[in-house]
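Fold this complex.
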Amino acid sequence: DSGVTQTPKHLITATGQRVTLRCSPRSGDLSVYWYQQSLDQGLQFLIQYYNGEERAKGNILERFSAQQFPDLHSELNLSSLELGDSALYFCASSEGGSEQFFGPGTRLTVL
Amino acid sequence: GENVEQHPSTLSVQEGDSAVIKCTYSDSASNYFPWYKQELGKRPQLIIDIRSNVGEKKDQRIAVTLNKTAKHFSLHITETQPEDSAVYFCAAIYAVGGSQGNLIFGKGTKLSVKP
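Structure:
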């Protein structure tokens, strides 16, 4: 157990819908990262937050947005969902060093 | 930006043999190189990492080497066991201060260890 939690574990929804994925980092970690992993694909970096502020953006679509709250948990919002958005979404957290610890992921299925 | 290439994409070895996975990176400023193991449907787990001021690091059957001049790093697993079967990802990061950079991952190597 990495100490990073994600909810829900599974999410099934329809095209055009909007969903919110939640991540709670390890106690004391200020940074939260979001990654997308499609079937048989690698890990694509989406976005990073550090102590409530956006720090880096990767290949995140405009339909996707995220935020980090004062208690340091983070939410990833996915809207106007398409079939191709079906994937595993991981968040990871880190303290002040470089090590990132991943949560168990949310499996999103768009039908 | 950083780009990480990983080879091979699949690797099959007999139990007890060694396995080597290689990665190259493009940004000479990258200074932290972790390796993650991911079992099917599970989270990536950090198994070993190396920083740019070190050339080699070992942890039991796992070792990582770094060649900064050539900009490549490798994962070595000795005495492989069936439970080593998984997808392995290398990554590179340019980490400065408290905000860190973001990890750029290789595309992964599916390792199969045959009993």
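The longest strand of chain A covers residues 87-94.
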